[in-house]
Amino acid sequence: MIFEHDKVVDLIKNEISRYINDNGFPHEIFFGNTALNITDSPDILFPDIMVINRDSDIRANVVYSAPEMIVEVVSSESRKCDYTVKLDFYMNIGISEFWIVDLADDLVIVYLKDTGYTPKHYLYPGAVPVSIFGGEISIDFSF
User: Fold this and answer.
1) Of 23, 109, 139, 142, which cross-links 125 as Cys (Cβ 3.0–4.6 Å)?
2) Over the stretch 1-45, which tens digit does the pLDDT of each residue have?
3) Can you give the residue ranges of every domain in the chain?
4) Domain 2-133 has CATH 3.90.1570.10
């Protein structure tokens, strides 16, 4: 399952990075060991992928500003936390777009601030539009 998790993280980050670079957007993408600490509390999160504005507050591998997009790829160990604690936290800090990629259920759930975080479900194989870029890019999960 670790291989699948890493493969999906790489797919998403590479596609979004390519789109950002090709179109000159003022965003950066972080993954893995970059922490998110909005409230400056001892509780910090490590999202699988964060897309942030280049003007965001980033110091020593910690992001202190709300990212525009976060992606969590669910593993058996993270399932409960991703669907509850992280979802609630991300909605409370006003993330524009949050994805839960559930490998066990072949499902991507997208939560958008603009829709009041009403979940939208995408089954894969298939493509999922990235809303923070106006849907001009989609991630194709046909692997």
Assistant:
1) 142
2) 567 999 999 999 999 999 999 999 999 999 888 999 987 667 789
3) 2-133
4) yes
Tokens representing 23 are 């179109």
CB 51 within 8 A of CB 69: yes
Task: Give the count of alpha carbons within 13 A of 9, CB side only.
Answer: 20
Both structure tokens of 68: 């525009």
Tokens read off for 36: 């998110």
Q: pTM for the whole thing?
A: 0.93
Q: Using H for helix, E for strand and C for coil, what is the string for 21-55?
A: HHHCCCEEEEECCCEECCCCCCCCECCCEEEEECC
Joined tokens for residue 17: 């990075």
Q: What gap in Å lies between CA 87 and CA 83, rounded to an integer?
A: 6
CA 98 to chain centre: 5
DSSP structural state of residue 134? T
